[in-house]
Amino acid sequence: MSPKSLLTNIRFYILVFSSTLATFIFIWVKSTIQIETLQAVTLDRYYALIAVTYLYFALLATPLTKLFNLPFEAKYLKARRAIGVSAFIFGALHSYFAFFGELGGFSGLGFLSSKYILAITFGAIALLILFLMAATSFDFIIAKLTFPKWKALHRFVYLAGVVTVIHGLLLGSDFTQFSNLIPQIFLAALIILLSLEMFRLDQYLAAKFINFPKLGLSFSIFLILITIVGTIIYGPEGSSGSPFNIHAFHIQVAKQAQQNSSPNFSSNVLSNPGLQGDRTKRFTVSFIHPEVVEASSDANLKFQIFDASSGNQVQLYSFVYSKLAHLIIVDSQLNYFNHIHPDQTSEGFSLTTQFPHPGQYHLYLDFQPLGAIEQQFGFSLNVGKFDQVTLSDQKPDTNLTKTFDKYEVSLNYPKPLKATDVSLGNQKLTFTIKDAKTHQSITNLKPYLAAFGHLVMVNEQTFEYIHVHPTNLVAPKPDDNSGPTVEFLPLGLYGPIKTGIYRIFGQFNPDNNLFTADFTVKVD
């Protein structure tokens, strides 16, 4: 092909645009996100969305041009091959950053559940088909294959579309809730494509069979099915009853936990934070610290994590709220609170910290081994010399509006809090944040560790620890704003939440001024 003809070929411009877009996204992510693994997560997501978009327009070409007389029909059909090649390019980039950037390559496969492996397999099948489509998109290849054989081969692109949809629903981070914008756009586009294909099918059957009803039978059946599915997803119970809804799944897990049953995880929700993996996997943690730890002095703490079934040390972890591990430290009186993050080393996790005064401290390590669900381990540590352990004797707050630093924080929750309802996710805790001087609502809450707020609850007597997730589990963008309210949903994912008095520690980040708000509540 001569340079002149190349410059008049729409396929050339599409491929140049795709290459430029892929490069721009890579440079932009690398320059705006500092953490390497988060870079891989972001690139994985963006490339996946673009790959699906390209594949959609490649599939849309035939039904759209067969049913309608489009002014740009010839160019669209000519561009279809380049659109398909672009789908493969972005699909390959998505696979690379997902497999080698997040999973850690082939060594990470051993840590995954069978359902997760199945979802990855669907993605691999789609990528293989797209590769074959791209490799046979050249004119000289078509000439060797002959056009009929080439056309028959390229019909496998429909299979690629089907397995891509399955893969995306199983593992796509954007499909945790149908109420989100991207799933709604995705489903609307899918309905449009399938509607057009049903029209084509009716036309084919009417031409093939004389007695076939010409009332659009296939299309009518499709509309009935779509109506039923839409009612289930978007109806009155859809926001909490859909199998793709993360809170519905959490509540289901909580209910099973109350019954001491082992939840059977649906592959539809494997992408949910904290619950992405095999619930049956067990781990042990060795807590290594100096024999004598003094108050107000540096203390190096180490945590070594092992697979309980094999004894092998765990090396691969998933990110939990943008960190590989979280460490919560409280004193026995539950007045001191610290939320810090150990660094991963070849021997596990370690950090250096100080304890402000002598006494007994309780430490809670939160992490998620690759292929398992989120794990929580608790430890006690004596610091300095003290006569006896003093427990908290604080009473539940009657005034639920307090001032912390420059902010006025109000806590609201259903009264009374009941252990059964809290365990099953039926009662929310809502924080409202205002300026302490002006009493104006704060609307510039910035994300802190991929959420607009973090909350833990600790029982005064038993030191039971509950990591409470925000109701909005979709990670905000770094420059997003929120406020003045943040809602949290306690759940008994690891067993029933016990009655008692709990100290609550919430962390919020208005305009990047991180502060901690603490309250005392009673659970009946």
Architecture overview:
The N and C termini lie far apart (78 Å). This protein is of the alpha+beta class and 524 residues long. 40% of the residues lie in helices and 20% in strands. The radius of gyration is 27 Å and the shape is elongated. Helix 2 packs parallel to helix 4 and helix 5 runs antiparallel to helix 8 (157-171). The protein folds into four domains: 3-175, no CATH class; 178-243; 283-383, Immunoglobulin-like (Sandwich); 401-523, Immunoglobulin-like. A hairpin with a 2-residue loop joins strand 5 (343-345) and strand 6. The protein contains 13 helices and 16 strands. Strands 9-10-11-14-13-12-15-16 form an eight-stranded antiparallel beta sheet, with no helix packed on it.
